[in-house]
What we know:
42% of the residues lie in helices and 15% in strands. By secondary structure, the chain is of the alpha/beta class. The two termini are 28 Å apart.
Amino acid sequence: LYARFSALLDGLLDTLVEEGALPAGLARKAVAVEPPRDPSHGDLATNAAMVLAKPAGTNPRALAALIAPKLQAIPGVTALDIAGPGFINLRLAPEVWRDELITIVREGERYGLSRIGNNERVNVEYVSANPTGPMHMGHCRGAVVGDALARVLEAAGFRVTKEYYVNDAGSQVDTLARSAHLRYREALGDDIGDIPEGLYPGDYLKPVGALLAAAFGDRYVGAPESEWLPLFKQKTVAAMMDLIRHDLGLLGIHHDKFSSEAELQASGAPERAIETLRAKDLVYQGQLDRPKSLDEHDEWEPVELTLFRSTQFGDDQDRPMKKSDGSWTYFGADAAYHLRKAELADHLVNIWGADHAGTVKRIQAAVKALTDGRVDLDIKLVQMVRLFRAGEPVKMSKRSGSFVTLADVVREVGKDVVRFM
């Protein structure tokens, strides 16, 4: 209904242009037809006069007076008034709503679909939790928000890629593999005792240990870490991602693409990103200022780093892309990852937890620099989930092995309840 009246309003504005009452070429993107905030004001409202008056060189009420008679002439419009500084409120005949109900029944799931996206490519990245354990409820809001947004964009005519970025290149993955090696030994009959501090103690790694034992026997029980760590990282991350995909599936969430940080770095993508920026004089060798958090007596030695000129894009300081030891910073790898996404999309959307708020400006600056502004990056921040049982907050930590899994809650209350909440 709103789309139909928006199209009718657009046609009326074209008529005013043809009549010379409105200048040609006015941007109408902000013109809306929507329900009034106060239902007593009517069934539909439009801000057209408010939005177009200034660029048209007139005042909103004068422009509303030109638009109103044409809207009043639309079949089904029973009343109209110009409110406040220039909003136009409409009342519709009952048969308009009855006809809309018939349309809804006839079109079924196709009702409300639009082509406003014009088949433009949108990459929506969401969840992207570290593959160090099953999905817990702390990840749930970002998962549902990202999935719902992707579905809305698809319904609006965009070509959507739903992506999950697998953070499998950090030290936490080494820790995961060492934890799995303990469970592997346990599956073969070793008494491993208490899980050492710093490793993942959760029972969810017991099935992984059993799989590794079945695959390799006792070959790596006493072997040096250098022989089994890369292999166990690969196998354990794969097992964790299978579990994550399964648990997300319980919520009806399915990604189109899973991108590996380890594979990204091995492909040389970060080097290509730096060279792209260096060619634009946006990367240089330099030193960061002394951190403000340090006391004047604290020791601090400046080091030479590869820095991105993010201050040219509104950030508060330039950001290191490489550490002094030559390894990539998280930002450096992330910039390369976003360049890869941008090569296949017209728009990027990230759903991040609020704890990542501090990195928004720098990654938006990198995308703008790497794509010369061709691709926009919109980052939606969501709060983490707080879970209560019997009125008491439930603490969740993978590191301590104490958390409530997404799968447990879905089984207890159902998929739709979890998504709605």
